[in-house]
């Protein structure tokens, strides 16, 4: 009987150890895992209230960073609406997520324009802008494709750009790339893994 009790206790201990290993497995993401890649290290831009910002300002929160422009006809507003749905789905945990919208069109996207556009999707969202040079440098650092496409007049143009968002963990490390159009569910899943 004593041997049976010892064997049972050993079995429970091994099972508990196995559960420990299961809970410490690395996260499995539904979006593209960029963990360990050595780019997209940061930015130095101005937010839609006029305050200088860097990636380090948001330590302690997950950061979802999207590049776009306010006159974008489709990808940008749908991405921002999708991120608003993600925040709603996250509920109270959304306070630990910061969505940043970096304009690729600083000529038209003034501080005032960003201040009206970005928070209209969610009050916590922040718009960021820089000079043309800062914008080009930031896009290069994040490997974002950007190309101004002329229109019928000098101020009537579009901007072709990479359609996706970067996710940084609470320590400011690059973790994920979210492709446009996948819906809120995979984003919610992955952000919960990182929270």
Structure description:
- By secondary structure, this protein is an alpha+beta fold.
- The protein has 5 helices and 10 strands.
- The chain has helices spanning 2-23, 75-90, 111-121, 132-141, 184-194, and strands at 32-33, 44-47, 52-54, 62-68, 97-103, 126-129, 146-153, 156-161, 164-168, 174-179.
- Helix 2 (75-90) packs across helix 5 (184-194).
- It is globular, with a radius of gyration of 21 Å.
Query: Strand percentage, roughly?
Result: 25-35%
Q: Which term fits the overall shape?
A: globular
The count of strands amounts to: 10
- Helical proportion? 25-40%
Low-confidence stretches: 1-23
Mean pLDDT value: 89
* Series of secondary-structure elements, N-terminal to C-terminal: HEEEEHEHEHEEEEH
The count of helical stretches stands at 5
């Amino acid at each position: 009987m004593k041997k049976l009790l010892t064997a049972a206790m050993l079995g429970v201990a091994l099972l508990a150890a196995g559960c420990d290993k299961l809970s410490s497995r690395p996260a499995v993401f539904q979006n593209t895992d960029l963990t360990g890649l050595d780019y997209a290290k940061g930015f130095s831009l101005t937010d839609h209230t006029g305050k200088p910002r860097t990636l380090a300002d948001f330590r302690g929160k997950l950061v979802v960073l999207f590049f776009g422009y306010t006159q974008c006809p489709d990808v940008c507003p749908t991405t921002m609406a999708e991120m608003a749905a993600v925040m709603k789905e996250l509920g109270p945990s959304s306070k630990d997520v910061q969505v940043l919208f970096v304009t690729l069109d600083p000529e038209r996207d003034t501080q005032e324009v960003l201040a009206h556009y970005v928070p209209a999707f969610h009050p916590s969202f922040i718009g960021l802008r820089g000079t043309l040079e800062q914008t080009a440098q930031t896009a290069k650092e994040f490997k974002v494709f950007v190309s101004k496409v002329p229109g019928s007049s000098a101020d009537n143009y579009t901007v072709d750009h990479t359609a996706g968002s970067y996710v940084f963990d609470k320590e400011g490390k690059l973790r994920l790339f979210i492709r446009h159009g996948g819906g809120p569910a995979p984003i919610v899943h992955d952000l919960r893994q990182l929270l």
